[in-house]
Structure formats: structure tokens, C-alpha cells
Amino acid sequence: KAGVTQTPRYLIKTRGQQVTLSCSPISGHRSVSWYQQTPGQGLQFLFEYFSETQRNKGNFPGRFSGRQFSNSRSEMNVSTLELGDSALYLCASSESTGTGRPLHFGNGTRLTVT
Amino acid sequence: GESVGLHLPTLSVQEGDNSIINCAYSNSASDYFIWYKQESGKGPQFIIDIRSNMDKRQGQRVTVLLNKTVKHLSLQIAATQPGDSAVYFCAENGMASYDKVIFGPGTSLSVIP
Hints:
heterodimer, A: mainly beta, seven-stranded mixed sheet, four-stranded antiparallel sheet, about 0% helix, globular, B: mainly beta, six-stranded mixed sheet, five-stranded antiparallel sheet
């Protein structure tokens, strides 16, 4: 099976712009989670989608949003970018939601905000 | 809020020695624990997991130990190899439906040839 695919791999944006990141989960996986990774904060949970519905949300401002499509593919959007949004954004998929489910990660999208 | 933390941010070991990476968690209701390995330029990769009803689980060259009394988790890597150099994260997951997976800050393991 193909792994989790994230596009694009790298992005450079300027403050105030918006950005959309894409994630294709492993075939058959219905849950997609998004994480932000920075050197100072580590891996911070953004949100999780299952069956096109947001199931859980982390402590991020409303500028961060996401959605999931009927084929389980997911996108996340960040509006009005700030310098502090520079990070590696990781997407992970799992077969289901709830406890006891290992996450399978993509290699991330590196976002740089200038 | 709840957190999962690691005792040491960096660890250097000689090739062939055993490595032990430690993790403390604060949520006593956590039901499921996972160790991930992240190599440079890649996303975290699942290594091994353990449920709260177990205290030890073994994989290929890796063993995870869980001590629920002191809320401590450890990852043991036998005969450490240069390819084991990476950042290791412990993560925990609660028992409730849709509980998020929380990651610790990570430990950087360097293997000295």
C-alpha cells in the first residue's frame, strides 16, 4: 500500500497570505489527523477528521481550519499567515478513530512564512 | 493540561550498546502508548505500542516497558546501530472515543560508531 502522501513538500509564503495543504491517507484509512511540528513546541495536535467530520480540535486559533472529503483525503488551510506559523505540518492517517490506533505519518509540508 | 514529557532531550550511545529512552506521562487515564522514530526530513514512524493492561512488550530489537504506578514509559533498543540515530517520541492516547494522541517533546538519539 502507498503511504500517506502530503503535498506540496515545501511552501514559502508571506505574512497575511493564506495556504492550503493536502493529505492523501493510506488506502482504507478513514481518520486523518494534522499536527504542527516546531523545534520549540514539538508536535502539537491541530485537528482530526473521520468520515468527513471534525472529531477533535487542538488549541489553535480559528485561522487554522481543515476538511475531509468523501474519499478520506484531507486539506488544511491557514489564513492570514503569521511568522510563527512557520513549521512542519504533518498529516497522519489511521484505520479508525479512538484509542488503540497507531498513526501513520506522511513526510510533511515545510511551510516558511516570511 | 495533560502532557507527556521526556526526561532527557539528547542521548549518545556507542554502537552495539543498548539504549534506553524514558518518558513520563501525566494522564493516569491514558490507555494506549506508542513510540515513534523520526529521521531527518521524514515524518514520525511507528515503532511499537503497548496497552495499559500490559507492562512489557517486545518487538524486533526493541522493548517497551510501562510502569503505571509511577506513570513512566521506556523504550529499550538492543545492540544500537547507526541507523537508529533519530528523534524518538513517546505518545499517549486516552480511553474516550476521539481522544487525541499527545506527543512528548522527543529525545534525540545519536549513535557513535
